[in-house]
């Protein structure tokens, strides 16, 4: 792999110029905050079930039963 496409100092700056990447990072950060709030304020059985719901269909598609 050419160094120009690999890990380099300006990689973060290049990524910050991409709106998709920035929105993705913001979404992941917001999800982490929501998970922390759910764990801090709700019963573990409820918050744990809600947090695992995204593991069942990570791409938003559900299989027909």
Give a quick set of tags describing it.
single chain; 65 residues; mainly alpha; 3 helices; 65% helix; elongated
Query: Sheet bearing the most strands, described?
Result: none
Estimate the strand proportion. under 5%
Rg from alpha-carbon coordinates: 17 Å
Number of domains: 1
- Secondary-structure element string: HHH
Overall description:
The chain has one domain (3-55). With 65 residues, it is mostly helical. The model has no long low-confidence stretch (mean pLDDT 74). The longest helix has 23 residues, at 19-41. The N and C termini lie far apart (44 Å). It contains three helices and no strands. It has helices at 11-16, 19-41, 44-56.
Brief digest:
The chain has 65 residues and is mainly α. The chain is 65% helix and 0% strand.
Topology:
Elements: H1 11-16, H2 19-41, H3 44-56
